[in-house]
Amino acid sequence: MKRGLAILIVVLTAALLAAGWLQAGGLKIQAERSGRTPDEAVRALMASIQARDWDRAYRGLDHSNDLQQADFVREIAGADGSLRTYSNLQSFDIWPVHASAGQAMLRVRLNWSSAVGSLAEVRDLQVVRSGDAWKVVWPRPNFAKVPLHVLPVNYLRWDVVGRRSDDWGTATVDSPQVRILSMNAVERPDSVVVVGEVENEDTVPAYLNISAALLKSDGSVLAQQDSFDAISHSLLPKQVSPYRIDFPGARLSQVKSVRIDAHPLLIPASADPVISVENQSVSKDALGRSILKGSLVNQSGQIVNIAQVLAVFYDTSGKAIWVSDGYVDQALQPQAPVPFAVDIPADVANRMHDYHVAVNHYTAPSA
Amino acid sequence: MPLRTPQWWSYGLFLATLSTFLSAQEPALRVPATVSAGSPFAISVRGQGRGTLYLLGPSRALRREIEFGKDASISGDDVSSSGIYQVVVCAGGSCATKNLEVRPAPAKRLGFLLHPSRVPVSTRNAVNATAIAFDQHSNVVLAPADVTFRISPAGEKPIEKTVPTVLGIASFQMDSRASQGTLEVNAKLDDTTEPRVIQQVASEACGLRMTAVPAGTTITLQTDPIRDCKGNPLPDGTIVSFTKIDGAGKSTVDTPIKKDRAVAQFSVSGPARISVACGVVVGNEIAWGGRQ
Q: Which chain A residue's Cα is nearest to B119?
C-alpha cells in the first residue's frame, strides 16, 4: 500500500514537472536549440543570447572564421560601461532573405531593453549547414586596436566654488545666457513635435533644459512638456545643440501658439572629451528606411561610456524640420571610430536639404 | 399735533451726555505721532486704574499690562521695523486706539546689486547698478540721500557718479567697456561703502578665419587667434565647429579654443569643402583641392 502511494506521488510529481515544462515553452525552446533548419539555428542563438548563456550561444556558431568567444561576448554583452552592458535582449523577429541547400541568409531584428529605453538593431546573419545542423556565421568583430601611446589631455575645466550668500545683491554669479536660435512646431501622425536649436552664448558652461507649452486660441495651456533626453544638456560656451519636445496625442490644429522657455544652470564642466562625427551620409538601411549614418571618434584619452547622437535636419530655407536622436551601444575607446545610425522619417528625408549632428556623452567618473 | 423745533439747550445736553459716556468708556491715550525705528519712547494714559496695552506693528505685536497715569515705556527693539503701528489701550471693556508712524532711522547700510555678473564688452546699457539705503534695522530709508558710485574698469582711471535716492533707491545704467576684464563699482553713502565686481567678457567672434596644412591624407585646420570685434580674445574652452564635406560624406568636430586658437584634424578623400563656425558666427571656407 505504502509502495503504491510512493509510486503514485512520484508519477504525479513527474507529470506536474512535465506540464510545467510544456507550459513554460519547453518544446519551443528545445526546438530553438536544435538548429535543424536555418530559422531554428538563428532562433536558438537568439534564445541563448536572451538567456545570456554565452557558452551555448557560442556553441551554436560556425567557427570557421576563428571567432573567439571573448570577442563574441564583448560584442553582444558590451564592455567598458557601454550602454550594451545595461541592456537585455527583450525580443527578436526573424525573416528569411534567401536560402540554398548549404547556406541561407536571415534578417534579424533585435529589440534590446536598455537603461535609456528600447533600442532596435537589424542584422543580416549568414547560416551554413554543418552536417545535420545549421550554424550561424557570426562576423568576427573588428575592434579597433590603438597602439600604445601617450595622449596629453590639457583641456579646460570649469569649477563652481564658494557659497551663495543670502544677502541681497551679493549673489555674484548669474546663470549662463542661452539663446533659442530656432523653433518649429511640426505635426507628426500621432503627435505635435517642437524642434529647434539652442546656443549657450555665455563664456561659462551651462546645464540646460528646454520646456514648451502648446497654447490654445484662448491662451490656455493645451499641453506642456520638456526636452527630456532629446537635447545636449551640457553646453560649453558657444556650443549649439538641437532639441526636440514631443507632445503625444496633440494636433497642430488645436494650437494657436507655442511658449518656449530655456532653463540654464551654471555647472562645473570639462571641455574634454572632444568627439568628432565623421563620414556622415544619408542612405537606406536593410529595411529600406532612410538613415543618417557615420562614425564617432573619441579624440580624447578617456573612454566615453555612453554616447548619444542628435541630428537636426533643415529644409531648403534653413529651417529646422526634424531632430532625430539615437544612442550608441558601444563605448567610445580613444581614437577608435564607432559607427552610428539614426532614423530619418520618410517625409523629412524627402524635404531635407542639410543636417547637423551633435554628440551628447556620458562618462563614468574615474576612480 | 405739529412737531416742535428742538431748542439749542437740547443739543448741548446731548453732546454733554455723549462726552460723559465716551470718557467713561475710552481711556485718554497719548502717543507720539512719529518715532524713529529702534528708538525707545513712552505712551501715557490719563486717569487711574489699570489696563492692557497692545502695540500692533508690521512685523511685531506686543501686549502689556499698564497702569494709567504713568508713562509706559516702549523699547527700541519693539519698534525696529518702520511702518504704521496701532497703539490700543483697553480697560473695562472699552478700548482707545491711536496710530503711530515709525520712520526709518538714518542710513547705516547699503544693499548693492551690480548686474549682470558677466557682460559682453561694448554693450549698450548692459550694466545695471542699484543701491538701496537701509538703516541699522534693515528698513529702507526713504529720505533722499546721495549715493556715490565709484566706477573702476580694469586698466582705466576710476570715475565717480553721484545719484540721489528716490524712495530709498539709487540706480543707474552704463555701457560695458570695450576691453574685457573686471569692472569694480563701489557704492558709497556717508561712511558706508559696498564694493561689487563683475566681469566684462569677450563678445561674439569677429573675422573668424582658419588655415589648412596638409600632412599625408590628413589636413590640420587651425584658426587664427579668435577675437571679438574689439580685439578681445575669446576665452579658452569656447567651442569652434569645423565641418568638412568630401567624397566620404560630411564630418564635423566641435573643439574648444586653446590658447586663443582652435585646431582640428580631418582625413580627406578627394576634393573637400571645409568651413568653420563659432556659435552663430561663420568663418571662412576652404575648398581643398581647389582654390581657397
A: A202
